[in-house]
Amino acid sequence: MKTLSQSMEGLNPTKLEYYEDVWKLQSKATLLFFFKGDDGRRALILDSTIFHPQGGGQPADTGFITIVDLNLKFTVQDVRSKDGIVFHYGFIEGAPEESESKFEVGKEVLLNVDESRRKLNSRLHSAGHLLDACMQHVGLAHMEPGKGYHFPDGPFVEYKGTVPQNELLRKQNELELEANALISKGGKVSYFYIFTLTEFLSLHIRYRRCHFFISGFCCCVAV
User: Fold this and answer.
1) Which of 17, 154, 172, 173 has its CA 20 to 30 A from that of 80?
2) What is the extent of the structural domain holding 49?
3) What is the value of pTM for the model shown?
4) What is the 3-state secondary structure (H, E, C) of the chain?
5) Would the keyword Metal-binding be found if you checked this record's keyword annotation (predicted)?
6) Model confidence pLDDT, tens digit, residues 87-119
7) Are residues 105 and 132 in the same domain?
8) Residue 1: inside a domain, yes or no?
């Protein structure tokens, strides 16, 4: 198997199909490299992917990848992106040592994303943007959003700024009421891929608040 540095040479950026359709959970791609990473994990590099890598405070997709003309399944446990290349980390089910030679460059593979995990990741990430909208509605627009953590084990969004100690409990209750009201109203979450600062500022004014989270991908909550 090729080393990581050898595998990276001359590679074009991975085509990110989830930008075109966030709910596309099955797709085909071409295998470019199969190798053992520095940490001992097996990894696949494809020409395109529907697997969302970890980033922007959001955990990676999981699922499996199969070689179309062989009965071989690669379970995807983690997905990372570096320099535009997406790495799918996992293991081969069955007899991995004997099967590794069958993961040949140019093979067509079938991608399957775990739907339940994708939906959970999406809901938790959208909840962070919803909270940001609520902050403005309850008089906390001066608070600047910072780190977002959208993992199931305890999601949160950090804000920079201060709230008087005697107002904390009241603001907490107001945020909960506002969030419940917006959820009941059924607001819309829109996704955009933007390329310039002018486009970003235009969306920021139109939707009041929007965030970059990966390579210019922008999520806006219209309220």
Assistant:
1) 154
2) 6-113
3) 0.81
4) CCCHHHHHCCCCCCEEHHHCCCCCCEEEEEEEEEEECCCCCEEEEECEECCCCCECCECCCCEEEEECCCCEEEEEEEEEEECCEEEEEEEECCCHHHHHHHCCCCCEEEEEECHHHHHHHHHHHHHHHHHHHHHHHCCCCCCEEEEEECCCCCCEEEEECCCCHHHHHHHHHHHHHHHHHHHHHCCEEEEEECCCHHHHHHHHHHHCCEEEEECCEEEEEEC
5) no
6) 999 998 876 666 777 888 899 999 999 999 999
7) no
8) no
